[in-house]
Amino acid sequence: MRPAPFTRTDLRALRAGLEALVATAGTPGGVIVCGTSAGERHTIAAGVVAPECGDAPPTEHTLYDAASLTKVIATWPLIGRALDSGLLDLDTPVGAYLAPITGDAPGADATIRRLLTHTGGLRAETRLDRYRGDPTPLAELLCREPLDEPPGRHRYLNRGFILLGLALAHTHRRPLHELAAELWADVRMTATTYGPVTRGPHVAPTEQRLAGAPRIWGGVHDDNAALLGGTAGHAGAFTTAADLARYARRLLDPEHPLHAWLIASRAPHAPVEPGLDRGLAWLVAGQVAYHHGWTGTSLFLAPTTGRYIAVCTNAVYHGPPGSRLHPLRALARETLATT
């Protein structure tokens, strides 16, 4: 069955939502690309890339720091591929896919499934700066730290995806950025890359951490990903709305190998709040699977209707976004849920 097209009402509402975010200083600007697996595609832009970049509005080719969207555009699909090839198993502890760890390492007992669903009980706080100068391998340092709680309860954290990225690299005997680059080339995400990237008007700056200091621009916003050289399982990727749209179309295509992995990942594994569950990496609300990035990015998918919405903003330009993004994100989710 051909996906239902986006209506003029849908597009007007999405434009109004993005323009309202810009008008209230929620972000300097942003881009939405929405469409269907059948090829329908609409681009909505508002505001500017940033004051440093002049008066030109952002486009679907403007490069944004994806932040935690890295989890579902890099680590999650690479895990799916590794499962298909027999390199990983969902219910095997992550320690089996890392270099041997000496001593007590409770984090190593968390399964791949637990890490994907944020139910491993791992310590929520991750401060890689505390490991400076320690010659112990990073995976061992992360796994040695005590759990915050017994496994089972959903608690969103980055540590598990850092471990997944390290496990992928160790299992493949190749750096994570090379694995991701191959994946992105295969799905034609031609602009997507791990940072840092060269500054320019095509790259959206993010936060100014100190008054009078240079703004983060082309560098990775996430501190832990930056300490890892810009490449990590939880953050570090830069992407465009056009690339997210291409990726979404492939995930929604029943003939594409990643489609089956998306359908399997939509199964609820852990309740987050009423009406919202965590699947394998993705949040699941009814027929919609989605994920956000702290900097102001989002990707929403509705596999049953073949529709998607990709959102790229640099809302963190004005400091921690807090609740500023909630209305636009809720609108995007509702737009897919009501068709």
Automatic annotation (TrEMBL):
Keyword Hydrolase: yes
Molecular function per GO: hydrolase activity
Keyword terms of this UniProt record: Hydrolase
Domain Beta-lactamase-related stretches: 19-332
SUPFAM superfamilies: beta-lactamase/transpeptidase-like
Protein name: Serine hydrolase
The UniProt record lists the keyword Hydrolase: yes
